[in-house]
Amino acid sequence: MTRPVYARRGFVMALVLAVMSLVAGVLALLASYSAAYYRNHQAERLKLATEAACASVAAYARAHAAEWAARPPASPVSPDIAALMPPGATGSVTISLTPADHHLRGNLSIRLTQGRYAVEREINLDFAAARARPELQPS
Questions:
Q1: Using the 8-state DSSP alphabet, how is residue 137 labeled?
Q2: Structure confidence by residue, pLDDT tens digits, 79-96
Q3: What is the CA radius of gyration of the chain?
Q4: Positions in the chain short of pLDDT 50
Q5: Of 70, 74, 78, 72, which is closest to residue 136 (Cα–Cα)?
Q6: Residues 94, 78: contact at Cβ < 8 Å?
Q7: Most exposed among 47, 70, 100, 110, judged by the fewest C-beta atoms under 10 Å?
Q8: Phi/psi of residue 73, each to 5°?
Q9: What separation in angstroms does the CA of 135 have from each of 15, 71, 119, 132, 139?
Q10: H helices present in the chain, as ranges
């Protein structure tokens, strides 16, 4: 005499569906955590690129301080920072110069954007101690 195996098949199918739903839930959690990590990583990368570009443009401004002290530019200076940005990012930088007591003061403003992230930074530069580089001074 044979007995029916349909009852066992139903139990196994319910067990397989429960395991599949657990695996799907774990995969959904992993996907959401990895997406959040990627967003945070991209935002941090843009912040670091902004800091690096800011330091580079400040060094550029300090290198040209003696030249600008002799002949201040009429409009704000906007150096090209395309090589300093991560791929896919856009940005702009402006150095505004104002004369102060026998020296120049500058305001550096930088803005980088990538996708929905944007980072802005402003630095005040004081060129009071800036002197011309020895190789640029006439002898």
A1: S
A2: 998 888 888 899 999 999
A3: 30
A4: 130, 132-139
A5: 70
A6: yes
A7: 70
A8: -65, 145
A9: 81, 19, 36, 8, 9
A10: 6-63, 65-70
